From TrEMBL:
Residue ranges of domain Glycoside hydrolase family 31 N-terminal in the record: 7-229
Domain Glycosyl hydrolase family 31 C-terminal, residue spans: 628-715
Coiled coil segments of this chain: none
GO biological process: carbohydrate metabolic process; N-glycan processing
Biased composition (Basic and acidic residues): 104-122
Family of this protein: Belongs to the glycosyl hydrolase 31 family.
Annotated source species: Pelecanus crispus
GO terms of molecular function: alpha-1,4-glucosidase activity; carbohydrate binding
CDD domains associated with the record: GH31_GANC_GANAB_alpha (cd06603), GH31_N (cd14752)
Taxonomic placement: Eukaryota, Metazoa, Chordata, Craniata, Vertebrata
Name under which the protein is recorded: Neutral alpha-glucosidase C
Domain Glycoside hydrolase family 31 TIM barrel residue range list: 292-619
SUPFAM superfamilies linked to this entry: (Trans)glycosidases, Galactose mutarotase-like, Glycosyl hydrolase domain
Pfam family, one: Glyco_hydro_31_3rd
Amino acid sequence: SQVLLQVEICEIEGNIFRLKIDEAAPLRARYKVPDVLIKEPTTQRLFISQKEAGILVLSSVNKDYKLQVTADPFQIELQSKGETVLSMNSNGLLYFEHLQPPPSDRRPTGENKEAAASDSFKEKQEDLGLWQEKFGSFLDIKAHGPSSVGMDFSLHGFDHVYGIPQHTEALLLKNTSDGDAYRLYNLDIFGHKIHDKIGVYGSVPLLLAHKPNRTSGIFWLNSSETLVDISTKAVAEHMPSRTAAETAKQRAVPLTDVRWMSESGIIDVFMLMGPTAFDTFKQFAQLTGTQALPPLFSLGYHQCRWNYEDEQDVMAVDAGFDEHDIPYDVIWLDIEHTDDKRYFTWDRKKFQNPRKMQEHLRKKKRKLVVIVDPHIKIDPTYTLYSQAKDKGYFVKDRNGQDFEGICWPGSSCYLDFTSPEVRRWYADQFAFKTYKGSTNILFVWNDMNEPSVFKGAELTMQKDAVHYNNWEHREVHNLYGFYQQMATAEGLIRRSSGKERPFVLTRSFFAGSQKYGAVWTGDNTAEWGYLKISIPMLLTISLAGISFCGADVGGFIGDPEPELLVRWYQAGAYQPFFRGHSNMESKRREPWLFGEKNTQIIREAIRERYVLLPYLYTLFYRAHTAAEPVMRPLWIEFPGKIETFGVENEYMLGNALLVHPVTEQDAKAVSVLLPGSEEIWYDFRKLKRMENPGTLKIPVTLENIPVFQRGGTVIPLKTKAGKSTEWMMDISYELHVALDTEAYAIGELYLDDGHSFQYLHKKQFLYRKFTFHKNILSSSCTDESGQYRTTCVVERVIVLGFGQQPTFVTACSKDRKEKEVVFTYDTKTSALTLENLALNVNADWEICI
Ligand code: MIG
C-alpha cells in the first residue's frame, strides 16, 4: 500500500522482547492499550552485530539472544544461544490496515485520477463494506474505517501450547486449521456450551508454549476483538550444514504457528523468553503485575445464590451453617437485594436494616458480599444516575447521546470506566457515608461487565459506541470489566483510608486483572461435563496470571443431583476461589439439604479446605510476591515429563499437593498419574506412601477425592477447622513432612493479620521455613524483614515415609532446654507423629529424631 509502517524492537530487562508496529504517520492516533502495563518497561541496549543489505542482526548485551531482522520479506527470528525459538511473519501474514479518509472525502489526486474514475463505482461498493457492517439487525458504523492488524509467529520445536483464556476448552490448545479460531471477545453467553472456541466473559491474550527444555510466551497486547489461529505440524529439522547422510537421518521436529488478528489498535507484542515456566510467569507479572494478596476470609468458603431473599433468609442460612457445623466465611447477595436493580441501594422491604444484618454477621465473624453491576438504571430520581448523567460519565452512542441499553433494571446507561475521572468518582461511591447501609464487612461482586447488554449485538455493547477520549468501544471492549474491577477495588481500599485489602470478584477480565481480585468462570451448568471442564478452564486462567479463580460449585444453571454436588464441593475445596452458587430457577441447595450422609461428606470437604488454609494462604503469598500460580498444570512442576503435558483431569496445588477430582458419575476408581520415576508420593489422608509412581488405578468412594503429597515437601495445616477463618486465628498448626528419596523435605508458612496492608507498609508478617534434613526438622526465618506477634504454636508434626521407629525424639528452641517429645510410629504407614509440641510458630527451633 506504500503506507509507511514503523517497527520498533526492543529488549526488556528479564528476557523479554517487545515488537511494536504502528503507522509512521497515521491519519489519527491508533489505540494503544493503556493501564495494563504496570510501568513503562525498562529496556536494555541491543547491539548491532551484523548489518548488510536487507539484514540486520541485533544481539543482547550478554550475547544470549540474537534477533535477525530481514527486510524482504520482512521477518524477525529470535534465537537464544543459537537455538531459534520464535520467528515472526515467517508465513507472511503480517497485516496492517492503515487508516484512510472515508470514501466520501476522497479526492482523486493527479496521477490516479483516471484510475479512480474508472474504478470509483466498484471501489465505493467495496469500501462501504469496510466502513459499515451489519450484524443481524445491528448496524456497526466504523467511523474511522477498517483498522485491523495481524501477524504470525512460529514457535520452533514446540507442539504444546496453552493459555489465551477464556474458552470452555481443553488445557492444550487445539489445531484450528479446520475449524473456528480461538476468539478473544468478552461476552455473556447464558447457557454456554462446552468445547467451544468462542470467547466467554474474559480475555487474556497470553499464549504459552512448552517443550521439555523451554517455556516461552507471546503476549499480544490488544483489547479489541481478537482471533488466534493455531497450527501445529512436524517440519524437517533445520540443519545449516547438512551432509547427505544427515539428511537421510533427518528428524521431523514440531513447529507451532500462531496467528493473531485483532480488529483494531496497533501491533504491540511481548515475547517472554522464559526459559522456565516460572520465569515466564515472572516476566508476565513484571509487565502486568502479580496477584493481589487476598484477605484471608476470601479463601474460605462462600455461600451464594440468586437470591438470598431477605434479612431473615440471610440469618437462617447463616444459622444453618452453625447448626450443621459447616465452616463458611461469606454470604452473598445477588441483584434482588437492591431497590429495583439500582446498585448501591437496598430493597427496603426485604432488607429493612442492612447494617444490623451486617452487625449480626460481624459477630459471627463472617462477611457479606453484594453485587454491583456496571449498568445504571435510567431514572432521574436515582442519584447515581442523575449525577453520572450530569457529569457526562456514561458511554455515548455514535451520535453523542448517552448509550442506552436494556439490562436488569430495564433501560440503562453504562458507566465509562475507561475514564480515570469516572473511576475516581465510582470508587468514591463505596465510601461508607455515600453507600448507605454498607459497613466494613461488605465486599463487592462485579457482574455483567463484558458489558452485557440485552438486545445488543451478541448481547454486548455496540462497537461504535464512544468512550473517553473519543475511543470507540471496539478498541476497548475487552478492557471494560478490567476497569470496573480496578475502580471497585480502589473504592474499597479508599473507604478504609488505604488500610484494608479489598475483595472484588469480577466476571469479565483482561491481562492484569489479577491485581484487583478474583474471577470466576460465569454461568456454568449443573452437569458432569461442566465440572470436568472447570479444571482446564481454571488452569488456563491461572497460567494467564490470575491465580484467584474458581467455578460455581454445583453448577449455576439447573439442579445438580446430590452426587454431582458432592463431587463439586470436593473439587472446589482444592481450588483457589471456593463459592457455591445457583440460579434463580434452581432449587435451593445449601449443603445440608441432601440428606445426612451428603451433608456429612460436604462438611468434611469444606473442613479439609479450612484445615489447609495456611498452605493455601502461603501459596497466595508466593503468587503475590513471585508470580507463581496457585493452581498449576502438572507440566509446570514436571517440565521434562512429556506424559504430563496434556494432563487436565488432575493438577498441582502449589508444588506439594496433587489433586485428582472425581468428575464421573458413579465412579468406582480413577486413573491417576503420579509423575516422576524419582518421586515419592503419599496419600494425603492415609499418610501412606504410594507403592509406585506412574499411572495408578485408585479406588474411590463418595467420601472424598484422591489427593497426594509429593515427597520432599512440608505442608502447614491447622489442627482443626473452625466456624470461619476468623474463628481459627488461634488454632494451632500441624506440619505434614513428606520425605523424598534422600529423606529430605522443605516447605514454608506465611502469615499475617489476614486483612490489612500492614504486611506491606509495616512489614508485619512472618515468613517461616521448615526443613527436614538428617533427621532434624528445623524451623527458621525466610524473610528477616518481617515481624508479627502471634502466640500460635505448632502442635503436631507428622513425618511421612520415616524409615523406622525412633528411640528418642527431642525438641529444642533457642533459649529453652531440650525436652522430650511424645511420639507414635505407625509401622504400617511409616508415619511418625509427634504430639503436644507447643513450639511457637514464630520461633526458631529444632526437633531431633
Ligand atoms: O445472567 O445477577 O453470572 O452469577 O447470579 C444472570 C444474576 C445475571 C449472571 C451471573 C450470575 C448471577 C446472575 N447474573
